[in-house]
């Protein structure tokens, strides 16, 4: 029987690599650490993005000169803090959260991080809240990290509320490899539908990357509104 190569991407190895990259490139931050700790303390699911992904969102916002960011799925505001810190003083994040308890935890974490004045947390299901944003200034960056069954709804609104040049990031598009399956449940069906939309909808140009980190095997899609 063949033995695994010492550098095969087994969980112990990718955890070590994730720890190394995180400790090398991500400085410790009390507010971000408190945001993560609040999930367990408040009974929220511990499904925030990994630190390296949080900084990727932060850098994408800075690289694109974003002033207005839309986030669909706030949870405990970990990614929201990363995004808000990337914006100029007059910048704004609008973050949508379906669960009132999550929204309350998020607001406390945003206050602790000193960015509450840049973030508006809107409570309600995305499909209900998003239409109310129509007619405002376009968003420069959209981060989609909510119920996967609604990805095509969220992508449609990302294009409608964005502009040519808006960057759209969709989280959790690999689902531990289940994305290749056609009978893996509603969440995977939603991810596949979203990826097909990014392929077929002329409003988007997109790619996707697999990730291996402390959150396991997953990935992100990154799209440009054209």
Rough shape? globular
Spatial order of the strands forming the largest sheet? 3-2-1-4-5-7-6
Largest sheet: 7 strands, mixed
Instruction: Spell out the helices and strands N to C.
Output: HHHEHEHEHEHEHEE
Find the CATH superfamily.
Answer: Vaccinia Virus protein VP39
What is the helix tally?
8
The level-1 CATH class: Alpha Beta
Give the CA-CA distance, first to last residue: 51 Å
Based on CA atoms alone, the radius of gyration comes out at 17 Å
Say how many strands there are. Answer: 7
Q: What number of domains?
A: 1
Low-confidence stretches: none
Average pLDDT confidence is 95
Structural class: alpha/beta
CATH architecture: 3-Layer(aba) Sandwich
Helix content: 40-55%
Strand content: 15-25%
CATH topology: Rossmann fold
EC number: 2.1.1.-
GO molecular function, one term: methyltransferase activity
Organism: Microbacterium gawkjiense
Protein name: O-methyltransferase
Provide a quick synopsis of the model.
The protein has helices at 11-25, 30-41, 51-63, 78-85, 100-113, 126-129, 151-161, 186-200; strands spanning 68-72, 92-97, 119-123, 141-144, 167-171, 204-213, 216-225. With 226 residues, it is α/β, with parallel strands linked by helices.
């Amino acid at each position: 029987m063949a033995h695994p190569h010492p550098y095969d991407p087994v969980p112990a190895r990718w955890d070590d690599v994730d720890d190394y990259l995180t400790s090398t490139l991500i400085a410790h931050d009390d507010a971000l650490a408190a945001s993560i700790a609040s999930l367990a303390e408040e009974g929220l699911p511990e499904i925030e993005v990994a630190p390296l992904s949080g900084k990727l969102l932060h850098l994408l916002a800075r690289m694109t000169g974003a002033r207005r960011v839309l986030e669909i799925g706030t949870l405990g505001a970990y990614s929201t803090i990363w995004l808000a810190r990337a914006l100029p003083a007059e910048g704004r994040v609008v973050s949508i959260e379906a669960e009132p308890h999550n929204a309350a935890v998020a607001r406390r974490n945003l206050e602790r991080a000193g960015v509450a004045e840049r973030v508006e947390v809107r409570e309600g299901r995305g499909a209900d809240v998003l239409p109310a944003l129509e007619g405002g200034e376009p968003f420069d960056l959209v981060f989609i990290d909510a119920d996967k069954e609604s990805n095509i709804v969220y992508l449609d609104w990302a294009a409608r509320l964005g502009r040519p040049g808006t960057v759209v990031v969709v989280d959790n598009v690999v689902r531990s490899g289940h994305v290749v399956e056609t009978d893996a449940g509603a969440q995977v069906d939603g991810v596949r539908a979203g990826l097909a939309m990014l392929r077929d909808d002329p409003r988007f140009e997109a790619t996707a990357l697999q990730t291996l980190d402390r959150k396991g095997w997953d990935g992100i899609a990154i799209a440009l509104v054209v």
